[in-house]
Amino acid sequence: MIKVEIDKDQCIGCGSCSSMVPDVFELVDVDGSMKAQVKEGVDLEKNKEAIISARDACAPQAIIVDGEVEEDEGGDEVLGEKSQAL
Ligand code: SF4
What is the whole-number distance in angstroms between the Cα of residue 12 and the centre of ligand 1? Predict the structure, then answer.
């Protein structure tokens, strides 16, 4: 299961993520500036690849994805350790 968060301090409201993955991201007005947020009730697993593309395309790196599943050469699934490393 992946977890997706927006760092609203970093987000510049460019709308790139919401146009790349409109099923997952939307722009909302926060105190007069547009910020991205993750829609409620979205199937993040199903949209995982698109979410990661949007994360990679976000210039200020405001999209935080935790719990990505990577496959090693043996085909075993290894959970990303990013959250523990922080
Ligand atoms: S792509 Fe990044 S900066 Fe642009 S709206 Fe989405 S989270 Fe914010």
Answer: 6
**Cβ(35)–Cβ(9) below 8 Å:** no
39 secondary structure, DSSP code:
P
- Using the mean position of ligand 1's atoms as its centre, give its distance from the Cα of residue 74 in Å: 35
Q: Is the CB of 4 under 6 A from ligand 1?
A: no
User: Measured in angstroms, how far is the CA atom of residue 82 from the centroid of ligand 1?
Assistant: 21
Q: What is the CATH number of domain 3-85?
A: 3.30.70.20
Q: Domain segments of the chain: what residues?
A: 3-85
What global pTM score does this model have? 0.79
Q: What is the pLDDT along the chain (86 residues), one digit of tens a residue?
A: 899 999 999 999 999 999 999 999 999 999 999 999 999 999 999 999 999 999 999 999 999 999 865 555 555 555 555 555 55
Can you tell me the distance from the alpha carbon of 19 to that of 29, in angstroms, rounded to the nearest whole number?
A: 16
